[in-house]
């Protein structure tokens, strides 16, 4: 697919700092507000936000038949509902206006009110999430968990290589980066010789994930094939699926995760379009045994996106505890969506589907503290000398991600949350 805005040769007249997540080839969509501006749609460029409501008001995108309400909006859902072709035209037009060879916007009298400094803006949850699904699609992660809790010789359960295993999560507690999360309380039974207790979780963990946002709905009864799937995926966000391992361990049999997983999941504020990530497609792991026909696909469907997690205590130096990559997914997003809908389950605009914890084959690539500290047996030593087996109160957990190639670096912006003490 030849997308104009993805051309690595493009440069912008807007200043882009070195290593910015937001060059002219990215142009992700988000929702922001300022002290004087109500929530609205913006596009990130360097350290600025293009206010699309003002861009629309000034007539720069008038030939595309948008309405003010598409941009003067609390969420991206209405804009996504116009379809990917329309979003592609919009992104191409914004790219044209920001191109260093174009002076339409640069010399416009409206320029002042169309650009907002990121540091003066508050980013809001970009998508109204109707339903949230969490997959379990990293083979290295699933293997590590199987080795730790079951049988090293049969670490993967019998179904794992035949389908992208997942569960239905909860949408109400998905929050935007910068939202702090209280340590959850609940039932645990770490010592099986005594009855369960009610307490604050002692094993609070992050999960390094990437989620995709559904941009096109289906009717109940319909299925999406792997070849159609990309048309339904608007874009991606970083996703920290906070998990209380002790609560999870006691509650999860037989119906799976419940309260150990639904007290807070944090996403990065900018939805990076699947279009912008097109140049970063790579092959995934070879799938053996052969998958059923409805899970077969052609072409590269994984994405080379470098991911990292930093833990930073208050008033102390942080430490990068994980450096993984989205390319390590065994099941790709097209297979996940095909599997999710194969039974006729419908999807809606704004639905969010997370990858599951993304671990790579090496220990420094593990995507959760459970694996990094290997069930508490290999604590991480922080720069201040303290140890981490899981997250402490007042630790800030930061996920970052970017793809890079041909001198272009497409990033997501930080996905940040601070762990507050339990609220009794
Ligand atoms: Ca998860």
Q: Please give the CATH architecture of the largest domain.
A: Alpha-Beta Complex
Number of domains: 2
Distance between the termini: 53 Å
Overall pLDDT confidence:
97
Which structural category do the helix and sheet elements fall into? alpha+beta
Oligomer: single chain
Return the CATH class of the largest domain: Alpha Beta
Q: Assign the CATH topology of the largest domain.
A: Fumarylacetoacetate hydrolase, domain 2
Report the CATH superfamily of the largest domain: Fumarylacetoacetase-like, C-terminal domain
Please report which band the strand proportion falls in: under 5%, 5-15%, 15-25%, 25-35%, 35-45% or over 45%.
25-35%
- Envelope shape: globular
The total count of strands amounts to: 27
Assign a percent range to the helix content: 10-25%
Query: What is the rounded Rg?
Result: 22 Å
- Main beta sheet, described? 8 strands, mixed
* Helix count from the secondary structure assignment: 10
Which runs of at least 5 residues are low in confidence (pLDDT < 50)? none
Descriptive overview:
Helix content is 16%, strand content 27%. By secondary structure, it is of the alpha+beta class. The chain has 2 domains: 4-124, SH3 type barrels; 132-420, Fumarylacetoacetase-like, C-terminal domain (Fumarylacetoacetate hydrolase, domain 2, Alpha-Beta Complex). The strands form 7 sheets. Strands 6, 7, 8, 13, 14, 16, 17 and 22 form an 8-stranded mixed sheet that branches. Strands 9, 20, 21, 25, 26 and 27 form a 6-stranded mixed sheet that branches. The mean pLDDT is 97. It binds calcium ion. Calcium ion (CA) binds next to loops. Calcium ion binds next to loops.
């Amino acid at each position: 697919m030849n997308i104009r805005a993805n051309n690595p040769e493009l440069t912008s007249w807007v200043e882009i700092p070195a290593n910015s997540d937001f060059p002219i080839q990215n142009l992700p969509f988000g929702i922001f507000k300022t002290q004087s501006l109500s929530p609205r749609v913006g596009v990130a460029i360097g350290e600025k936000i293009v206010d699309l409501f003002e861009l629309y008001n000034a007539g720069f995108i008038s030939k595309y038949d948008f309405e003010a309400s598409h941009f003067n909006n609390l969420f991206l859902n209405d804009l996504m509902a116009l379809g990917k072709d329309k979003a592609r035209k919009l992104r191409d037009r914004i790219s044209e206006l920001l191109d260093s060879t174009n002076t339409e916007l640069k010399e416009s009298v409206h320029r002042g009110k169309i650009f907002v400094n990121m540091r003066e803006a508050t980013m809001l949850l970009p998508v109204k999430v109707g339903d949230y699904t969490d997959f379990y699609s990293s083979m290295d992660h699933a293997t590590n968990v199987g080795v730790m809790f079951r049988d090293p010789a049969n670490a993967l359960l019998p179904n794992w290589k035949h389908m992208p295993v997942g569960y239905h999560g909860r949408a109400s507690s998905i929050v935007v980066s910068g939202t702090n999360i209280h340590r959850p309380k609940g039932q645990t039974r770490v010592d099986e010789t005594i009855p369960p207790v009610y307490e604050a979780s002692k094993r609070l963990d992050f999960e390094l994930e990437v989620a995709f946002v559904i941009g096109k709905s289906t009717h109940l009864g319909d299925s999406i094939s792997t070849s159609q799937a990309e048309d339904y995926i608007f874009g991606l966000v970083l996703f920290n699926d906070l998990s209380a391992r002790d609560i999870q361990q006691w509650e999860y049999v037989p119906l799976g995760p419940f309260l150990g997983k639904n007290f807070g999941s944090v996403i990065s504020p900018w939805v990076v379009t699947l279009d912008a990530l097109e140049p970063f497609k790579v092959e995934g792991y070879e799938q053996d045994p052969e998958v059923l026909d409805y899970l077969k696909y052609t072409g590269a469907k994984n994405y080379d996106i470098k991911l990292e997690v930093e833990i930073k205590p208050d008033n102390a130096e942080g430490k990068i505890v994980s450096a993984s990559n989205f390319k390590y997914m065994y099941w790709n997003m097209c297979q996940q969506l095909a599997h999710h809908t194969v039974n006729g389950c419908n999807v809606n605009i704004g639905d969010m589907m997370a990858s599951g914890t993304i671990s790579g084959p090496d220990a420094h690539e593990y995507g959760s503290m459970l694996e990094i500290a290997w069930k508490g047996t290999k604590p991480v030593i922080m720069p201040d000398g303290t140890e981490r087996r899981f997250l402490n109160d007042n630790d800030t957990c930061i996920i970052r991600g970017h793809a890079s190639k041909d001198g272009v670096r497409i990033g997501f912006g930080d996905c940040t949350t601070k762990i507050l003490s339990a609220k009794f």
